[in-house]
Amino acid sequence: MLLSQDKSDAAYIITAYEPGRIEVNKEAFHAPLLLTPESLELQSLPTEFSALEQQHVHDWVQRDVDVIVVGYGAKARTPPVALMKAAMEQGKVLEFMDTRAACHTFVVLASENRKVLAVLYP
Fold first, then answer.
1. By residue range, what is the domain housing residue 41?
2. Is residue 40 in a domain?
3. What is the pLDDT of residues 74-85, one digit of tens each?
4. 19 inside domain
5. Is 0.85 topped by the overall pTM?
6. pLDDT by residue (tens digit) across 63-112?
7. Looking at the 3D structure of the chain, how many domains does it have?
8. 20: domain CATH number?
9. If we measure between CA atoms, which residue out of 38, 29, 20, 60 comes closest to residue 106?
């Protein structure tokens, strides 16, 4: 899936997605990543979505973001209740969706200059 050209001031933007591969600024990534319009992190996530823990959520909600989008891969999954609860206890909501939808949502919100964090599993 190619995404439309972005006109925002974001330093990092998703330029394409296909299952197993996320392209940011035309560079391919095959591992999970944390992405904001200003930053890209590769080492802070477990390799498997199922290994995410409440501590990860705690770290995400401490960031200066308005929206946290979690892309769990290509297949539909039930969002882990413990992770959603950990975010709600801190006054935030995690938006869980397949990674294709999460990439699209990130691009739209970043183009609106919104403070968005995407947690993406290819």
1. 14-120
2. yes
3. 998 888 999 999
4. yes
5. yes
6. 999 999 999 999 988 889 999 999 999 999 899 999 999 999 999 999 99
7. 1
8. 3.40.1230.10
9. 38
